[in-house]
Amino acid sequence: MVTTSAPGKLFILGEHAVVYGYPAIVAAINKRIFVTTRIVIKNSDEINTLGVSDNRFVRQALLYFKKTFQIHESIAITTRSAFSDTVGFGSSSAVTVATIASLNALFQRKLSNNDIFNLSYDVVKNIQGVASGADVAASVYGGITYYQKKEKTVVKKIECGKIHLIVGYSGVKADTVTIIKKVVNLYEGKKAFVENIFVDISLLVEKGLHHLEHKEYEQFGTCMNKNHALLHKLGVSTLMLDTMVKAALDAGAWGAKLSGAGGGDCIIAIGPQSKKQKIEEAIEHVGGEIIDVSISLEGTKII
Ligand code: MEV
C-alpha cells in the first residue's frame, strides 16, 4: 500500500494566455490531496474518491498507467483532500498527479518527476480537452514556477523569498472548462483582439518574474492589477471578483487579481503585512470568504 500527496495551486499571473503557449507564473499551495493505492485480489478496480467529486481524473489516471505499463492486477484507490474542490485550487490536476505518483511507487516504476508530469498532463488534457498543464506542473514540482508550454515545456523555479498571499473566495464555483471554451470561441471570432490581450499578459508575466526575482513585491502587485484588468477585458471576471479586487486595493493591497479561469473561484492579493488584517476584512465586508493558504515548496511526495 502506498500513499502519496500532491499540492493544489494558485495562478499568480498569466492564466488563459498560457493555454495558447504564452508563459505564466503558478504557485503550489499548502493544501494537498492524498491518494492511497494498493493491489487487491479482485476482478475489478475499486475507486473511492472522497473529497473529489469528479472521479474521472483518478479513473483515467489508473487506466492510462495500467495500459502504459501493462499492469493486470486490480487496484483499490482511495483519496482524501485538504481542500474543497469548489474553490479552484486545481483539485483535478492534484489528484491526477498524486494518483500517478502513487501507482509509480506501488509498482516501483522509478518514474522521474518529468515522467509523472507528462503522464498526468496527458490524462488532464484528454479529459478537459484544453489545458496548459501549468497546474499539473505546480502539483508535481511545488514552489512558484514560471511555466510555458510550447514545442517544449519550460518549468523554471522562481526564487523570490516568502510571499504572503491573501486569498478571497467569491462563493461561486467556476466551471473551468466552460470558461476556457468561452475564451476559445472569442479567440476564434476576434483573434487579433484576444492575441493582443495575450501578448500584453505575457509582457506582464516577464515583468512580474523580474520583480519577484528582485523581491520588488510592490511593483509585482502593479503587474497583478494590470493582469486583472486584461482578464476583465477578456470577459472572464465577474462583478464579485471585481468587487473583491477593488476592496483589497482600497484597503491598501499592492496588487489583487482573479486567480485561475475566472467566472468565480478566488482572487489573490498581496500587500504589506501591516495591512493584512484590513485587506482581509475589506474582502469579507463585500461578501468574500478568506481562505488561509500559503505557498508551499513541496511538490508531490510519498507519505
Ligand atoms: C485554469 O486554472 C487556468 C487556465 O489558464 C487553464 C489552464 O491553464 O489550463 C484558464
Structure keywords:
alpha+beta; four-stranded antiparallel beta sheet; seven-stranded mixed beta sheet; single chain; globular
Major beta sheet summary: 7 strands, mixed
Give the C-alpha Rg: 19 Å
Count the helices. How many?
9
Shape: globular
Q: Could you tell me which ligands this complex binds, including any ions or cofactors? A: (R)-mevalonate
Overall mean pLDDT: 97
First and last CA, distance: 11 Å
Write a structural description.
The structure is a single chain. The chain has 303 residues and is an alpha+beta fold. Helix content is 43%, strand content 23%. The protein has nine helices and eleven strands. Strands 1, 2, 3, 4, 5, 6 and 11 form a seven-stranded mixed beta sheet that branches. It has a four-stranded antiparallel beta sheet with strand order 8-9-7-10. A hairpin with a 3-residue loop joins strand 5 (144-149) and strand 6 (153-157). The longest helix has 23 residues, at 191-213. The protein is globular, with a radius of gyration of 19 Å. The termini are close together.
SSE map:
Layout: E1 2-13, E2 24-40, E3 46-49, H1 56-68, E4 74-81, H2 91-106, H3 113-128, H4 134-141, E5 144-149, E6 153-157, E7 166-169, H5 176-189, H6 191-213, H7 217-233, H8 239-250, E8 255-259, E9 266-270, H9 276-285, E10 289-291, E11 301-302
Bound molecules: (R)-mevalonate (MEV).
The site of (R)-mevalonate (MEV) has 13 residues, from helix 4 and helix 5.
